[in-house]
Amino acid sequence: EQIKKGNYEHFMQKEIHEQPESLTTTMRGRLIRGGDSKLKGVLLGGLKDHLWTIRHCRRIIFIGCGTSYNAALASRAIVEELSGVPVTMELASDLLDRQGPIYREDTAVFVSQSGETADTLLALEYALQKGALCVGITNTVGSAIARKTHCGVHINAGCEIGVASTKAYTSQIAVMAMLALAVGEDSISSRGRRERILDGLLNLPNKVREVLKMDSEMKELAKLLMGEQSLLMFGRGYNYATALEGALKVKEVALMHSEGILAGEMKHGPLALVDETLPIIVIATHDACFSKQQSVIQQLQARKGRLIVMCSKGEASLVCPNGGSRVIEVPQVDDCLQPIINIIPLQLLAYHITVLRGYNVDQPRNLAKSVTTE
Ligand code: G6P
């Protein structure tokens, strides 16, 4: 039944709209309540015997390809914040090309929807040889990565058919937020922060339902953008990953050039591209980087950039006080979960641009769901 499209025209569309349910399944049985029925922590059964080792390791290395890498990047800051352990990022192919150093005292976390991606699997074999603790985060029970890692977490997002990953991405981020909570100590100083994240996780499916109502708004935006040759996306902090992943979706399915750019790097090159014609999506939802994003928007507007600004609901006049730019307002959630909300309008946008351009949404040209060769 799961591999049928139901009332949807394409698997990608179905999988985007399934996210309230896939996230619910990802979290099922994993959020733990105390005696007072307040949420007090998470239980990740596949990690429980290894938490001490992860907490005391020298560094955590996130390793993946494509969308899975972007999900790991979106989670990096919260894992560092709650665990206090430095987290470094590796694209699997680049780690292998460099034969980068990995030590026995490292924890290597392999993120892969399929659990079969050749580059990620080879990087896992490399890290096993080096003696690191290897953790798998996959969507496929019994996959090579799930079998060969020492321990891990299944994201339980359900079968994903569309080549472009959507619901697996949001479930991967939810799992890694839970991983951050599991690895981080429950100290008095972090309690408020932890409780807000736990409540945020619990409410996430409702917030996702709310943001999915933007489907027709994103279709209208797709009509405006369908003829473009290029689309830039600027993000920073938690939403640098959103910019990369949004651009990856547009590239993969809509076959349109799109680039995710770290807003902090804008003045070191990308600013030269800004003119009245090139569309730029700026992600400026409310978090610790908000005032920096406000100033990025001002600088882009001063150069007559053609902006589409994603902001938290009710903040349109804060991000664009003088108007002039199109605004996408999304519900606000805890900062470390905001990438889950923010990617959804961009998934919808990529989907609609693709359909309008008449391309194959579920099986884009030249791409495969699982790349099992190096
Ligand atoms: C392929 C797919 C992408 C995916 C990547 C990593 O390139 O087309 O959608 O993100 O592989 O796949 P994995 O199964 O390891 O997450």
Structure description:
This protein has 374 residues and is α/β, with parallel strands linked by helices. The protein is 44% helix and 17% strand. It is built from 14 helices and twelve strands. The protein has helices at 11-17, 19-27, 51-55, 66-83, 92-98, 118-129, 144-148, 167-183, 191-212, 215-225, 240-254, 290-302, 316-319, 338-357; strands at 31-33, 39-42, 59-64, 87-91, 106-112, 133-138, 151-154, 230-235, 257-262, 279-284, 306-312, 326-330. It has a five-stranded parallel sheet with strand order 4-3-5-6-7, with helices on both faces. Helix 4 links the parallel strand 3 and strand 4 (87-91). The radius of gyration is 20 Å and the shape is globular. The relative contact order is 0.14. The mean pLDDT is 96. Bound molecules: 6-O-phosphono-alpha-D-glucopyranose. 6-O-phosphono-alpha-D-glucopyranose binds at residues 65-68, 112-114, 117, 120, 163-165, 367, 369-371.
Gyration radius from CA atoms, angstroms: 20 Å
- How are strands sequenced across the largest beta sheet? 4-3-5-6-7
Number of strands: 12
User: What value does the average pLDDT take?
Assistant: 96
Overall body shape? globular
Structural class: alpha/beta
Task: Please summarize the sheet with the most strands.
Answer: 5 strands, parallel
End-to-end Cα distance, whole Å, is 33 Å
Order of SSEs: HHEEHEHEHEHEHEHHHEHEEHEHEH
Helical content (DSSP H or I, runs of 4+): 40-55%
